[in-house]
Amino acid sequence: MRLSQLEAALVISVQAGLAAALAWSIGHDLLDNPAPIFAPSAAVGTIVAALGQRAHRTIELLVGVGLGIATTDLLLSFLGTGFWQTGFVVGCAVLATLVLFGRSGAAVGQAGGTAVLLATLAPAQHDLEWPRIVEAMVGGAVGLVVVALLVPLNPMRILDRDAAPIYQRLAGQLREVSAALATGDQQRAVRALDALRGMGPALDRMHQALSGAEEVVSLAPARWLRRQDVERFARASEHVERVIEHSRGVARRSAMALQYNEPIPPDLPAGIGRFADSVELLRREHRAGRPTERTRHAVREAVYTAGRARALGVDEFGDAVVTQLRTAASDLLRATGYDPTSANDEVRKAAQDGENSVNAG
Fold it and tell me: For residues 4 and 161, is the Cβ–Cβ distance under 8 A?
């Protein structure tokens, strides 16, 4: 995980350096500005924006520059220049941006920065407004070009970096529930439930990574071939979130079954453990861009084993564990591409086959 984060940081730093160099060169050589400050600044601001927000950030940069220029020109023409005028102009520029666009950090920062530059440099240098706008446009465009054409990130690596901890934690805590049922350790099941409840921040990071990957496959022609993989991952992530919710139910009802000393057939923890395997298989097959047949097979095996547990004899909470596991399995099958009806049919058939295997025996 550390190596993956280091790789992404290295690529972004190369993007920022290259964008700054190109923007400075354009500002200096093409726009004939001996000190092109604004273009590299806007280029770097675009690059270091959060993944999935770079195009939006570029628009914010330009809006902030425009508001800063408009506010400064209007007020300085009446107030003149000086220390209190500078403070007043900057405050008004920031206030206008906040009122119009809310807490948009890029727009507010650019409006305030532009107001500072114009208010302090205007007495010594005239006609700064137009170069400031042009250089901001050039810098933002250069940043997008670098991201899209010259050094695009690998979208699947972006996704796997932030999705891997989710799949690993989900599979790991399902195995903890399985071990708790196998050993009769109720507190172990409770700890697994607490861990599953604490996955909100990791899910937020995955959503941000998904937004970044979608931005990359939209802007970078070299990554257009991975668009289907990203779309498939996006569809699957919705169902994986529901699998996490159902897994919390599995952990909760397992803890209750242990608390009330209900009978736990060996097939029940075995089925949960096999379902944990299917979660990890889904992540590996999505990362490699392969068909998800192994995942589907593992899900069927998990439900088949849970069906055997029900036929062998479970009480109220044990039966609820089986039902919750079947619901989670249906959502995981939908994450592999099944429609709802087909996923439910597959789960129902696997569970029935498991029960029939016990009855026949």
Answer: yes
